[in-house]
Design goal:
By secondary structure, the protein is mainly α. It is built from 21 helices and 2 strands. A two-stranded antiparallel ribbon has the order 1-2. Helix 14 runs antiparallel to helix 18 and helix 16 packs across helix 17.
């Protein structure tokens, strides 16, 4: 360690890092203010370094360069193939209900999409740990191979063979997508700090672009080519994009081989009120988030709108979501990540209630455009929000993994669209799932609001303590 560190700075940092359980509560602005004149790399760009004796992450990030932007491009393609495919399940929900799985209820069919979403998201609990241990390439290559294989297996599924589709699409595809999701997002922190929100925004927009491409492709091939040929064509396209992504993406440094124990980390995180409420907000908001995504196409068909327009209702929503995911990269530094998260969740919750009145072409367009935009903003803000709540970037993978684990298990599997399908019934009472999803989304909004309030109180308290110490 450098001997040029000011004594006062050393005392302030040691007070914060002496107790391992309190390390997560060190505020970024506190640390950066305390050691800003120090030549010792205790704080770089406002990030906290671990206590003495622990590996010091390299925060001298390049903020760009060929390798950085190639990695962004590769991560973008991963999102097109992963979450972009998951977000297109509304096409399958409609096709399975009316054509391919006619003996199954809407609720049973929605379990396929819910299990897919659950596995993709909750696998982050394990994948995040593996990423922190340095298994980036293992996850990227293995996940891409499994995703491609499972999609080709889906093309072999027979009509009314529910278990075949569940195993291939609900589990196999989801495992592959889950293995590549968190690494593709977390690796960006190795290349960007000040421009991290912009990089994550670009990457997150990939899932919206995928949610545009996949529905258009599937809606134009399922009825013309048949399920098997349409699924194989889609699998071939995704496989090609994943190969390109694997070539482009590179990790910049070796991750820690012995990161902090998962349960020790979880115990410390549980004392961070802002993080806890953000995790609860993610989980409860997910109970309402997917209702329009999974059901807007079927809703349009059942309300007598033309098949051609109904097929593109999900595309309209996802096109708007694409622009919604891009916009935060240009305004997040002005409006703030927390403010944009809270505002977008509130607007989405109100529009979910608006699904009760959906029944005309104009109503589908209005809800699709506005909901898609703000849902895109919200989804883009998830990773930057968790990064904002993270003091030690070496724990970012674990923090994302734990939060997404709860999000996936309780937000997409235990409840959410399966309950929506059960409330909908075979009589298609659309107001029931709309009210349930809207209420859950409002609860999520309240949790996010609480999280941001707690974060700002902590920041203000820390700033006051620093000021008092400097005056003393």
């Amino acid at each position: 360690m450098s001997t040029s560190r000011p004594a006062a700075a050393l005392e302030r940092i040691e007070e914060k890092t002496a107790d391992p359980d309190s390390r997560g509560s060190v505020n970024k602005s506190d640390a950066s203010t305390t050691v800003q004149e120090s030549s010792d790399p205790v704080s770089v760009a406002g990030e906290i370094m671990p206590p003495a004796g622990e590996p010091v992450p390299d925060l001298d990030v390049p903020e760009g360069g060929r390798a950085a932007w190639c990695t962004v491009a590769g991560a973008f393609l991963v999102q097109v193939c992963g979450f972009g495919y998951t977000g297109s399940f509304g096409v399958y929900q409609d096709y399975y209900t009316r054509v391919y799985l006619v003996n199954e209820s809407s609720s049973a069919i929605s379990w396929i999409g819910s299990i897919n979403g659950f596995v993709v998201i909750s696998s982050g609990l394990i994948v995040g740990r593996l990423f922190d241990r340095g298994y980036f390439y293992h996850l990227l290559y293995g996940g891409s191979l499994l995703l491609s294989f499972s999609l080709f297996m889906l093309s072999l599924a027979k009509p009314d063979k529910y278990y075949q589709i569940l195993l291939s699409q609900g589990i196999g595809v989801a495992l592959g997508a889950g293995m590549v999701y968190i690494p593709s997002v977390a690796v960006l922190s190795q290349y960007f700090h000040k421009r991290r929100a912009l990089a994550m925004t670009i990457v997150a927009s990939g899932s919206s672009l995928g949610s545009i491409i996949h529905p258009i492709m599937l809606n134009n091939t399922l009825n013309k080519l048949g399920f098997g040929s349409a699924a194989r064509a889609n699998a071939g396209m995704i496989s090609g994009l994943l190969v390109i992504a694997c070539v482009l993406m590179r990790t910049r440094k070796q991750q820690l081989k012995t990161p902090p124990n998962l349960w020790v980390s979880a115990k410390r995180f549980s004392k961070d009120g802002a993080y806890v409420f953000a995790t609860i907000g993610m989980t409860t908001f997910a109970l309402g988030l997917y209702f329009p995504l999974f059901y807007i196409q079927l809703d349009s068909v059942k309300h007598g709108l033309s098949d051609t327009f109904s097929f593109y209702s999900l595309v309209i929503l996802n096109v708007s979501s694409f622009f919604g995911r891009l916009s935060p990269g240009f305004v997040a530094h002005v409006l703030g990540v927390g403010n944009m998260t809270v505002a977008s969740t509130f607007v989405c919750a109100i529009l979910i209630f608006g699904m009760i009145g959906l029944g005309s072409l104009a109503s589908v367009v209005v809800i699709g455009v506005i909901y898609g935009f703000f849902a895109g903003v919200y989804i883009t803000m998830l990773a930057p929000l968790l990064a904002l709540l993270t003091d030690d970037m070496s724990e970012l993978g674990v923090r994302i993994g734990i939060a997404f684990g709860f999000y996936g298990k309780y937000g997409t599997l235990v409840a959410g669209t399966p309950i929506d399908g059960a409330l909908l019934t075979d009589q298609f009472h659309w107001w029931r799932p709309a009210i349930f999803s809207g209420v859950m989304a409002l609860v999520g909004f309240g949790c996010y609001l609480t999280s941001i309030i707690l974060l700002r109180r902590r920041q203000n308290l820390t700033s006051m303590q620093v000021s008092l110490r400097e005056k003393a």
